[in-house]
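User: I want to check something. If I give you two sequences, will you return the structure for each one separately, not as a complex?

Assistant: Yes, each is folded on its own. Here is the first sequence with its structure:
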Amino acid sequence: MNEMLNGKIAPLKMKCPSCGSELGDFPTRLDIPIQCGHCRYTISWNGDSWDACVDKSYRRDFARQWVLWEAGKLGDPKLVYGNDPKHYFQELLEHTNLTEEKLKSMRILEIGFGHGRLLQQVQKCCPTAYGLDLATPLRSAQLRPGSAIFGNLFNIPFLPHQFDLVICRGVIHVTPDAHKAFECIAEQVADNGLLYCAGLYEPGRGRLLLRKVFPHVWNYPEPVRLGISSVSGVLRATLEAIRDRKISAKTFKHNYDKFKIDIFDTIAPQWTSTHMADEVKTWFASKGFVAQKVDYGGYLGTKADQPQKSNAA
């Protein structure tokens, strides 16, 4: 677990997302930028997050949905995919066999925190929980000031092997290289740490067919994508009502909101890939993890202690 100094958790060590040079400790003040002594790249607080995003041209289609959701255009902003935000926190505890008490003493990094509700819940019991995303955090998430980093998971501004728990949900399969993305997040996990990688698409996911019906749908104008999501959401909610033989305005609206955001989430990103369990477990094993499948698209990996290298000739 965490390295302790004088009874306190040791500060996180940073690296330059541009050139990879060490940058020293993670900042505790928001008014003092960090500048790389080698390439002069600067990480500064932009009012919402630490700006460590080197490539501003990288497509962020997948992040737009949360702005729309916060504005009420993709269902009830009080719910996420039809669930209370606390649902995902309880799911995290269940899948990792952790408790709120255990989280208190852990260093935690959520990569791709999106709507921020899971990180918000984690931060309520863990003072050393941080988040990295390729979009600035939503104001409604109310994350702890100084804890959010705007950056790309392919250029994470932390030195490797520092976090006791790394969380990454619904992210790596919407990158141009899911395997490489996995390797980047896996190297952030400390010895004996946990990697909770969840929400991966598996072959056979029905809503992915929409990407074949509407080629290059991620390039369609936003109103058109919202329209596709709305019509598809109505159809799915209707099928649910018929299947359950239970029709009520409240239930229909709930299902419609849930499916609308889920469908928009499916068609919005430029890149989307699917992965079998055997493939993902091989990724874990190659990085020294013992992994188990915990639900659809969800895996928990435990990082084994790495043997100390001998200095003997």
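And separately, the second sequence with its own structure:
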Amino acid sequence: MEQQPRVLIISLGSMRDAIYTIPLIATLKRNDYLVDVLTAEKGFEIFNTNPYVKRVQLVPLEQWLNKMPYFGIFEDLSETIAKIKKKNYSMVIDCEQSLRSLFLFANSGAKRRLTYSNAKGFSSLGGNEFIDKDPKLSNYNVHQVERNLNFARYLGFDANIVDFALPEISYGAKLKIDKFFSFFTQEQPLIVLAPNMGLGETSWHPKNWINLANNISEKYNVVIIGEFEDKSLANKMINKNLLNLCNQTSFDDLRYIFNNCKMVISNNTEVSAIAWAMKHVKVVTISTSLPPAKYNPYNLTNENCYKTLIGSLGCQPCNSTYCQNSTYKCSHLPTVESVLNEIR
């Protein structure tokens, strides 16, 4: 019996990056490939126990960075490369395409190393097959999911099915979040807000979030999620139907929250991607400076569950956290009214 080909996917970025890699992995699995993934801490939560993935190998990038200057990094990298080479992969696909993937990619020992010729961080130097030799397989102005699926198209596979599977939600997450949900005194539809103040001055303006929360908290229960930077904003939203869970939720917790909500309104593409992968949740992503065509969720069906709201400024989107004009007008767009129209 012919042995199934084994492929390694390199995805070392955010949860969003990991989620947008899953359709490629699903396509390879449907075509009888065994798929392993090389990932960092954030991606590990997406790929571990994922039904499409055979094996996950962790590269603790965050741990290494926290130790810097860390002189043992070269020894750790050498051990990781030795483990990769032992697997004798027939193919390695670099979905990361950055300087941090270059060394691992180039030294994987695989005969076929697929990437784009214009990949960032000189990572294309590690490849020996460049899929964008076919002009139809470009990575310019293409959504990240499609950019990854181009690898399947290059291999001659049908990539029209955009499929997702996430690990099962743990019982512990259900217990934890149900305890938080007991805060709500009324049974009302739940809306989740994800401000992402970590974007700095290109974040949707704090006054907009406060105004939005005030306008919906009478008819809806509202949960605010995010990191430490979002917590101070959430503390300014005082309402009996508003629950502040900033800096308190894991990946598992978020998915259980999304399972129980009507809508996610987000200025955070990672949160939007997680909600998107849940499939049944309406996601409204607010774009100020980031290009939605590349990173925001898009419709898999005609149900119009995924919507991007962005202003009409000539400089949008600039894909930067710094305003060249020093005005940051994009932080005031879209209007609160346009977001409310998506809820009504």
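Because they were folded independently, the notes below concern the second chain alone. The CA atoms of residues 318 and 324 lie 9 Å apart. The mean pLDDT is 89.
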